[in-house]
Specification:
Chloramphenicol Acetyltransferase; 2 domains; globular; 11 helices; alpha+beta; about 425 residues; 4-stranded mixed beta sheet; about 35% helix; 6-stranded mixed beta sheet
């Protein structure tokens, strides 16, 4: 892209951006990179460059850089859609380098693309973005717009994308105003009451003598096969719940068994796009909420699911208060090595597997970041679901996490076939 650019404009950051900026300062380089990986035949790097420029130009969060100003962290939006594009021949190992190479938040750009041209197979494309500029919802927006633009350009058609009627900077400004409102105070009061006397961490059995071991990430996956998956979906519908509510209830049962506890706090990511106009905006909107599940043991799974459903609905109604404000309100003991209030996390995520009917999305071969002691993501598919357990390998033996994954699958089978059974 052009090296000539207009002077960037300073603006306030959102609470999520501020949190991500701080975490980036203390984490190993590249920890907060996120990546989309695609496969398609006969890719044109020039068309990809033009399509990506279209997407970056539409979304101010992708053109931001960050610096400490008089009033704290500021974001500066570059007018030009700057990004890096690298083309490699044959060697897919370059994708791992693109995935892990750190971004400089103070200068940008926060987007890079890497193309691997292959003779005997379809070409590979990786788009890597710093998490401060895009959450998981945003990645779907980017992927859809990228390939709609690419094929419109390839077919010499006008690029027609849905209008973006607001900006991320505007959202950040509105959030600053909302944080001074009575509604924000009411939501803080909910979290103060809900987390009173809550445990600060789930005491999962860890390795001995881990003090000197550096954090390093690894993962273990398990498939919830079709009979189990279908049973969980039916159970979810029968109890007016969501798939997230059912699977996080299973997670609470797993944690109760693994740590021998009856009360857990799980960090859960929420989309947190309170207005319809924000659905097409790229940026970091995700808010992490400390979701408490207590009274786990000795309760039929169906009853526990109903209780989790009710608590989840209450949490959703109070999801706009930023995680940092909840932490400030509760003032737990701070430890730079872990995120306050919860050391385990859980989420579900639905992902598109193809775009424009011609591009396949692949699982990104990126390094596993260490953000929590244990974080689990369940991805539902057409006939099955996959649960992936991301863990700090300096804390846990792989064999232990594999056992937890098997136990999670076993609990899922029991819940699908005997929802009235006591699972913890």
């Amino acid at each position: 892209m052009s090296d000539v650019a207009s002077a960037p404009v300073a603006a306030p950051v959102s609470s999520g951006q501020a949190r991500m900026w701080f975490l980036d300062q203390i984490a190993p380089p590249g920890t907060y990179n996120v990546m989309l990986t695609f496969e398609l035949p006969s890719l044109s790097p020039d068309l990809l460059r033009r399509a990506l420029a279209t997407v970056v130009a539409r979304h101010d969060a992708l053109r931001a850089s960050f610096a400490l100003g008089v009033d704290g962290i500021e974001q500066r939006t570059q007018a030009e859609p700057l990004f890096e594009l690298e083309v490699l021949d044959g060697d897919a190992s370059g994708l791992a380098d693109a995935a892990s190479r750190p971004f400089d938040l103070s200068t940008g750009p926060l987007v890079r693309a890497c193309v691997v041209r292959r003779v005997d197979a379809d070409d590979l494309v990786a788009v890597v973005i710093h998490h401060i500029a895009a959450d998981s919802w945003s990645l779907e927006v980017i992927a859809t717009e990228l390939w709609e633009s690419y094929f419109a350009l390839a077919e010499d058609r006008e690029v027609e994308l849905p209008e973006v009627t607001t900006s991320y900077v505007d959202y950040a400004r509105r959030q600053h105003e909302w944080l001074e409102s009575d509604e924000c105070r009411a939501q803080l009061e909910y979290w103060h009451a809900r987390l009173r006397d809550a445990p600060q961490a789930v005491p999962l059995p860890a390795r001995t003598a881990v003090e000197a071991a550096p954090a390093r990430g690894d993962s273990v996956s398990v498939v919830l096969e079709e009979p189990t998956y279908r049973g969980l979906v039916e159970l979810t519908l029968d109890h007016d719940a969501t798939f997230f509510m059912t699977t996080v209830t299973l997670y609470a049962c797993l944690l109760a068994a693994a740590a021998d506890v009856d009360d857990v706090v799980v960090a859960i990511p929420l989309v947190n796009r309170p207005r319809l106009e924000l659905e097409r905006v790229v940026g970091y909107f995700t808010n992490t909420l400390p979701f408490r599940i207590d009274g786990i043991r000795g309760v039929p799974f169906s009853k526990l699911l109903e209780r989790v459903r009710d608590h989840a609905l209450d949490a959703y109604a109070n999801q706009e208060v930023p995680f940092e404000r909840i932490v400030d309100e509760l003032a737990p003991v701070r430890d730079l090595d872990r995120i306050p209030l919860a050391n385990v996390a859980f989420g579900t995520e639905e992902r598109a597997t193809s775009y424009a009917g011609r591009v396949r999305r692949l699982e990104a071969p990126a390094p596993v970041p260490v953000r929590f002691d244990l974080a689990t993501l369940v991805v539902p598919g057409e006939h099955a679901a996959t649960a992936t357990f991301y863990y700090d390998a300096s804390l846990f033996e792989r064999a232990a996490v594999e056992e937890w994954a098997r136990l999670y699958a076993s609990l899922a089978r029991q819940a699908a076939t005997s929802p009235e059974a006591v699972l913890a």
